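S1.2 Input.
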Amino acid sequence: MRNLEKYQGIIPAFYACYDRKGQVSPQGVEELTQYYMDRGVKGLYVNGSSGECIYLSLEERKLILERVVEKARGRLTIIAHVACNNTKDSMELARHAQKLGVDAIAAIPPIYFRLPEHAIARYWNDISGAAPETDFVIYNIPQLAGVALTLPLLAKMRENQQVIGVKNSSMPVQDIQMFLKEGGEDFVVFNGPDEQFISGRVMGAQGGIGGTYGVMPELFLAMDACIRGGEIARAGKIQYEVNAIIYKMCEARGNLYGVIKEILRRNEGLDLGSVRPPLMPVTREDEAVITEAARMIREAKKTYGGM
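S1.3 Output.
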C-alpha cells in the first residue's frame, strides 16, 4: 500500500512569475518557492490554472518546473500539471517532469472538443504512460474544462495503478465523498474550491490545492491545523475571513492572479510581474480593492496566522 502522507496538507497552486518584459522570471520562481518553504506548506502544484499554463510555451513550463524543483531540493511535495490540448505535448511535459523527480503529475481533460469518456481515459493513460514511475492525479474542474469526472470514468482510470487521486475543483462537496468511495483504499482527494476548504476537509479530502492559498498561506495552514485538532468552530471563523478576502479580490477589474501578485508585492516584497494576455492586468481603478484586500490579509494573519 502506498504512503500518501506526502499529499496530505496545504499545497498552494504556484503562480506564473514574469519579469518586466513579460517573460518568465527564473529569479521570481525561486523567490516564490522559497517564500512557500518559509511558510511551511506541504508542497506546490506547478503549472496549473493559477500558473496560467494555457498561455505558456512548453519550454516556459519546463523552465518553471526546473527552477521550482531545484530550489525545493526535495523539501516539498511537487505535483506538476502537464496537460496541454494535445497528447504529444502533454507526454513531453510528463517525461520531463519524471526526469526531474516530481512526486506526481496531473492533468485536466482536453478542452474545446467534447470528447467521449473513452477518449479522455486514453488521453490520461497516454500521459501517465510517458511517466511510468510517477504518480498521476486527475484534475476535475468541469466549470472550466467543460467536462466533469464521472464515477464510471474514475473507475476506468483506477485500473491504472499510477492513478492515486483527484484534484477536485467541482463545487458540490458531495463529489469528494463519491470520489473517495470509488477510489477505495490508497487514494487521495484534494479539495479544490478555496471558499469551501473546511467543508471539503470535513467531507474527507486529505489535503487541498488552491489558487488563493499562495497569497495567504498562513490562513489555510491555520484552518488545516484547526481541522486536525478538532477546532471546527475556529476553522469556520477563519474560513469566513478567507472568503471575505477572496470576494474582495474578485471585485477588481483585473484578473485575480494579477491582483494576487500585486498583493504579494506589497505585503511580502515579492516581484512576480503581472499576468499574460489575454488575461487582464490590474488597473488604476483596482487600487482601492487591492489596498483593502492586502490590509484584510495582514489583519487576518495577525489574528489567526500564528497557529
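S1.4 Remarks. The chain has a mean pLDDT of 96.
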